[in-house]
Design a protein that fits this description.
Helix content: 40-55%
Strand order of the largest sheet: 1-6-5-2-4-3
Structural class: alpha/beta
Order of helices and strands: EHEHEHEHEHEHHHH
Length: 209
């Protein structure tokens, strides 16, 4: 699987236009495209932009749960573009048509980096399964939550694009590791609280009726 370096857009609107343009070019080349976003709002905003540009795409989010199986089943067909939130369609293999396989396989676009690197890896892992071909591209802009988490106001004067893909890759990995450590600490705190409650409340041990 080919994973491209992070690409920088000046603002959110520019990023959505760039993502839509990339998806349109891949669609014209006979590829299948999966675009990962973090929220229903983002999925609908990107879908509306594509519709305005005359690009056919489908949305897989919490509002399209009933159609999830059918959308995932067709996601590997030539020219298919699926915009999906992180939880949508997880655990289901995207089967490629022969035409898509011959043209390079499924292309995954990470349109919004996640707080957890594990979620990004899961999204990347939707392509290139079981030796299938595939590729990944990744986009950033100043308003992205992960970018905000690495002190964007101080970096604004430098310009995000000028910092380079290697710098952003390092900063995002650092931010994601910090977020995962905090999440792990919160889970441990909840487990400790549950254990304390089990010891402190006798009815949880069946000591009272």
């Amino acid at each position: 699987v080919q994973v491209a370096p992070w690409r920088w857009a000046a603002d959110e609107a520019s990023k959505w236009r760039a993502v839509a343009g990339e998806a349109r070019r891949l669609q014209a080349a006979g590829r299948a495209v999966l675009i990962g976003v973090r929220s229903v709002r983002a999925s609908e905003a990107l879908h509306a932009l594509m519709q305005a540009q005359g690009v056919s795409a489908e949305v897989l989010n919490a509002k399209s749960h009933a159609q999830e199986a059918a959308l995932v089943a067709a996601a590997g067909e030539a020219g298919r573009i699926i915009i999906a939130t992180n939880m949508a369609g997880r655990g289901t293999d995207i089967r490629l048509s022969d035409a898509v396989r011959q043209r390079g396989g499924l292309h995954v676009i990470i349109a919004e980096a996640n707080d957890s690197a594990r979620i990004d890896r899961q999204l990347m892992g939707r392509c290139g399964r079981q030796g299938e071909p595939g590729s990944v591209s990744r986009w950033l802009c100043p308003s992205d939550a992960v970018v905000q988490g690495v002190a964007w106001p101080r970096l604004g004067a430098l310009g995000g694009a000028a910092l380079g893909a290697a710098w952003w890759s390092w900063r995002i990995k650092r931010s994601q590791r910090r977020h995962e450590a905090l999440a792990s600490a919160r889970r441990e705190a909840v487990l400790r609280a549950d254990a304390w409650m089990a010891r402190a409340l006798p009815f949880q041990r069946g000591d009272v009726a």
